[in-house]
UniProtKB/TrEMBL annotation:
It comes from Pseudomonas marincola. InterPro entries: DUF1223, Thioredoxin-like_sf. Pfam families: DUF1223. The keyword Signal applies. Residues 1-22 form the signal peptide. Keywords: Signal. SUPFAM superfamilies: Thioredoxin-like. This is DUF1223 domain-containing protein.
Amino acid sequence: MKTALSSLLAVLALGSAAYSAAAVHYSSGETSTALLEVYTSEGCSSCPPAEAWLSQLVDQPGLWRDFIPLAFHVDYWDQLGWADRFANPAYSARQRGYAQIGSARAVYTPGFMLAGQEWRGWFENKALPVAKGQAVGVLDLKLDKDNVELSFKPQTTAPTDMIAYVARLGFDLDSKVVRGENAGKLLHHDFVVLSLQQVAAKQPLNWSTRLYPNEQGKRQAIVAWINQPGQLQPYQAVAGWIER
């Protein structure tokens, strides 16, 4: 009996360890990788088609290398009768920030920002452009369990006061909406920003932090980008799957 119990505990321990994030190392290319930021809400009836299109990018060969999608769920539609469980006022503030500096004409959903500039191509049924950015340098990301290490090797002289952002993304998430504009619908989500943290450099062009815990989603990814203080447009970005 003791032997059987010991075996069971060993199996459970192995299962728990397998679900912990394994060590991974990702590097960007020399040219800047574009962030595709999609501002969305479960309370917006226009958003499900945009998110269905976004989900198709999971299988695109250029994912993480040529473009990095993020779905920021905003909270300003929660007042319509359905509170989006993924919404965060900080994400709404980020979108408003783009409008305030003139990078977007207004605050709305679904809203698309590509490499820090408003992109209206989705509304015109255009393919996502994957033009190469400027040669800026390589951003390295190391994730070991929940410990994140970032370092940037600039190709030319780069600002040394840059800050980093680290996001955890969740995939294959469903919500059954019972109120609001999407009442009665089962919504499917990918690239959901589950957490976003700002990280100050521990020394010039080097950052470290612990990834916020959030186990939602059948699959997860990590995204990191850097920019100068007071700016929203990413300078360089890197991303990859979180291995289990």
